[in-house]
Amino acid sequence: MKLSDALREAQGRGLDLVEVAPTAAPPVCKIVALGKFRYDISKQEKDKKPSGTKLKEIKFRVNIDEHDYLTKIRHGEEFLERGNKVRVQLQFRGREMAHQEFGMQLMEKVRDDLSGMSQVEMEPKITGRNVTMTLSPLPASRRKRRFAPPPKAAVDSQNGSSLE
């Protein structure tokens, strides 16, 4: 539609001709009420959520098995890889409270194992029957995974057998 025709059409309806996409060839325009158009744009700007980091949590127990520990550490690395903060929580039950030093040793081990991916935001702190520590991710260029998940076996596409 020609510019003069579009302007005449907008005036006939009592609305405004607004350029929506000036970089397009040809430029795209809409016939709308200018006030409503500005309001909608400002509302869209407000609705855009900031890309803040989420807080993920990993829970441990003092007598955790080595395989379970490695699985949780891998999950922690995945969370940090995505840019999320990680809260590590250690829970004591019953008589485990008598040996809190084992809990602190485990928290130090977690901190050391995730040191390639994170920095300590909050040192391990005992509150009641829990020990909590918060880790924040390092910049993407400095992250190094130590406990990457095992590679999936390659499968031959013709007969479905493993290539190993």
Walkthrough of the structure:
By secondary structure, the protein is of the alpha+beta class. It has two domains: 3-47, Translation initiation factor 3 (IF-3), N-terminal domain (Ubiquitin-like (UB roll)); 55-142, Translation initiation factor 3 (IF-3), C-terminal domain (Translation Initiation Factor IF3). It is 34% helix and 26% strand. It has four helices and six strands, in the order αββαβαβαββ. Strands 3-4-6-5 form a four-stranded mixed sheet, covered by helices on one side. The longest helix has 16 residues, at 66-81. It starts with a helix and ends in a 27-residue tail after the last strand.
Would you spell out the secondary-structure blueprint of this structure?
Layout: H1 3-13, E1 16-21, E2 28-32, H2 34-47, E3 55-61, H3 66-81, E4 85-91, H4 100-113, E5 118-127, E6 130-137
Parallel strand pairs: 3-4
Antiparallel strand pairs: 1-2, 4-6, 5-6
